[in-house]
Amino acid sequence: MGKIKMQKKSTSIDMTAMCDVAFLLLTFFILTATAKIPEPLPVDTPSSTVQTKLPETGLVTITVGKSDGKEQVFFGMKDRAIRSGALEYMSSKYKVDFTDKEKTEFELMDEFGVPVEGLKQLLALKGTDRAKKGVQPGMPCDSINNQLQDWIQGARKANIENGGTKELQFAIKGDAKEEYPQIKRIMDILQDQKINSFNLVTGLRGKDYN
User: What is the pLDDT of residues 79-94, one digit of tens each?
Assistant: First the structure.
């Protein structure tokens, strides 16, 4: 008895709806994404196997590096409320008045390295122009003019005034080729304000096996 052959039918899947969804998602991400502004003081951090992540809030970062052979220090605060409060503190201490527009611009700035007297000129520039080489000379932190210490004090004061339940955390981000005395100088400034616990930012590398 002969076998009955089953009739083969062609199958097709309508991908129109899937393509529409894909293009909608792509359009959404393009419209909502923001370009990352380059760091004004890029540093090559030393390698480490430690995988502890820095907190997303309540963090102050002090970056130490060199540009054109000159030592530079930059200061960054994660929280907008802390930035705003610290700016008010520095404005009062150094008698530099900032407009509402300048205050708003400062709240959006992750990191900076200029004396407070030159901050108004920096805020007048576009975001990409601020990161150009030579625009920011670094923050004064010597024995004669230690504005870094004042920014640290202002950030801690702003944290308390904004109802912070935890102490601000501090992280030092130094270049791998940076000499130890420069890093120790930043540590001494932190310890002068009774800040004895801080993080050292490193780059992740694989573990060494024998």
Answer: 999 999 999 999 999 9
In sequence order, what are the residues at sequence separation of 6 or more whose Cβ sits closer than 8 angstroms to the Cβ of residue 50? 202, 204
Distance (Å, whole) CA 116 – CA 87: 9
Q: What angle do CA 63, 68, 74 make, to 5 degrees?
A: 20
What distance in Å separates the CA atoms of residue 43 and residue 4, rounded to the nearest whole number?
Answer: 75
CA 45 to CA 50: how far, in whole Å? 13
Label each residue of 81-120 as H, E or C.
HHHHHHHHHHHHHHCCCCCHHHHHHHHCCCEECCCHHHHH
Q: What whole-number distance in Å separates Cα of residue 130 and Cα of residue 126?
A: 6
Neighbours of 63 (CB within 10 A): 26
| pLDDT, tens digit, 9 for 90 and up, residues 141-184 | 988 999 999 999 999 999 999 887 788 999 998 877 767 788 88
**Contacts with 168 (C-beta within 8 Å, 6 or more apart), sequence order:** 58, 59, 60, 82, 155, 156, 159
Decide: residue 35, CB within 10 A, 0-12 exposed, 13-18 middle, 19+ buried.
Answer: exposed
The sheet carrying 169-174 orders its strands as: 111-112, 70-77, 59-67, 169-174, 199-200
